[in-house]
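Field reference: sequence -> structure
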Amino acid sequence: MRIVNSSKIGREAVEKFLTKKAFDEVELSPKVRAANKKIFGEDLSAIEIVRRIVSDVRKFGDAAVIDYTKKIDGVELENFAVELGEIEIDSEIFASLKVAAENIRRFHVEQLPKSWITYRGENSLLGQAVIPLERVGVYVPGGTAAYPSSVLMNIIPAKVAGVREIIMCTPNANKTVLAAAKLAGVDKIFKIGGAQAVAAMAFGTEQIPRVNKIVGPGNIFVTLAKKEVYGHCDIDMLAGPSEILIIADDTANPVYAAADLLSQAEHDPLACSILITTSQTLAEKISAQVDAQLKNLPRREIAAAAIERNGLIVVAETLDEAIDLANFSAPEHLELLIQEPFALLPKIKNAGAIFLGAYSPEPLGDYLAGPNHVLPTGGTAKFFSVLNVETFLKRTSLISYTQKDLLGAAADIIRLAEAEGLHAHAEAIRRREEFS
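Structure field:
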């Protein structure tokens, strides 16, 4: 694993290493480009492909969904719906799903905000109504792995929020994924994926109802499609490849640190695994451990590609410098493998989720602890939040003034309205003065 020393190459050079490409800057591989050219008849960029698919689904509905699913996935569809019925999976896996689901539910119940009302003047009131969305669409990726954990993480907060109807689109009707969806309380499942699934949920088709919001991670085409339909419906965030950043001092166990770096690297060849430490000796031990542990991973080709492309160990001069670099990177997952992790917590400003101590590894958050694992990536933790109950809620303001209180405020309202040149606004107040 590549090791760089900040005192030797300088802070600017380290920050350049830590700067990740935005989700829409990722280049398609020659293999993917060749496949796309065969499908579309020309060498199109990812956004050009997505815009074509979204436009066609918006215009032609199910026919376009069927056409693109056949062209891209090689699957011929007529009825998109998946029958939930009886789903048989390993009983021990189902038991673990139930434990995870209950932990996720309990955590998200704590996030529920309340509607409120406050009184002003003589029986006038102001307030806020917190209202769940009517219908939400959840996207669950297929690809090289199944993600029942993502099913739980997306559906359960929506159920806790009180969303009336939850639909799910996934190209992989894996039994464990379906069992997780049923356990979480999904209403309908459709066996489609990619940009066509996002467009179908955003605009509605003959078989797929239109949703108010689309949540859930996906590949570059899914992410770009979510960006394309934003405004026609809401979305959760624009997510890119998985990331982990570990801050480690000389008390850290190199075996644990290497294992945690690889836990993200196995997701995707574009995944990012970074460690920042104050110890050159520890850096070398962790690098050696990564090489040793890679050999035994079933997904070692994917993990090795990610480590080669986006793996990095930075040797910083101080823990404060390590924190500054972590805040600059704004990672999806931040682990603090240090002697006193809570001492650093107030200094962490940008991270999707923070894991404190040697026995709080990233997979704990991915599967069982309860906090959501749908997190901002690509540095967007500087302004995006983790998916949560409030993702599925909207706020409406409440205003109710008595005649006396309105008349008491009339002069200020009229003055401000006329200052903006909006005389009809002022007149709406004057009319009430005239009849009082």
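Note: Residues 26 and 220 are 8 Å apart (CA to CA).
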